[in-house]
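Extended Data, panel c. Modelled sequence:
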Amino acid sequence: CPVCGRLRPSTELATHVNACLDAGNWPSSGAQTTTTTTTTLDAPGRDSASAVPSHAPEVSLTQNVNVNKKRAREEKDKDKEEEEEVDNDDSHEPAKRVAAPTTSSFLAAWNAPRLAGHFVLENVITEAAELDLLRFLGDPTKGSSSKQCEPMWRLRHFNGTAYGKSWGIQTNLAGRTQSPPSLRIPSALRCVVDAVRERASHVPHIGSTWEPTEANAIAYVPRLGHSLEPHADDRNLSGPAIATLSLGADAIMTFTEEKGTRRVRVPLPRRSIAIQTGPSRYAWLHSIQNGDLQGELRVSLTFRRGKFEMERRDCWE
């Protein structure tokens, strides 16, 4: 188990990891000293093709704590019984060591929290498509020497430090206005929108005809201290649904209740699309700590529909 270090059969590893996390045994890389309450609620029956439903029932913190304590006690009693069986069985062979799971398998075993209005769709694009997109966007650490699409990557310090570039309608947050694009959204990104339409047609405010009018890419290089500070995408100038594709590496996004103390940590595997609607968009702030960025480079592609209607031909190549 990557959390407590116990040896568990591979068929029971996912359940055991969830029990450890529910019991509060957080892995050292994600441990944070905080006075807020962090919750991780399992989504039963979730598979790689499913999403967390926006209408999922709310679970009170008291109920969740009681369930966590019960599951932890059951897990401890089960471990004790198995240890006694091993001691009394002279013919028992030495337990085979389970190879330490990779980051991606650890995230796969960690069911996404039940956060109202938030959806995570895994393996939305292929590895080949992911590589094509990364090549198209270019390597931000190599500057102008890297072959990349326009505009060039630039270091930005808005809601955290990272490299960024954007296309589509231009938003002036200070003036509260939007204007026609200076650079249209590249047709090479059309595959992402098609994937969202196909896999998330059931998501509120998406459907089969969803057409974003703005897109931006953010490149995080962990060794340079990059991160995403707690914030909410503009709730007036952008529409009710925001879709983000993760490329290159996994990450964990932290949602903080805007008018409360709860925190929820949501795994974002590479090649997955996360969609914020409803409460996750309007009642929570989201962020990514530097320590929750995996790999050497993670790139996010975020698509929004602006408040002001514009023709597709004006925003896309």
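The chain has a mean pLDDT of 76. This feature is highlighted in the accompanying rendering.
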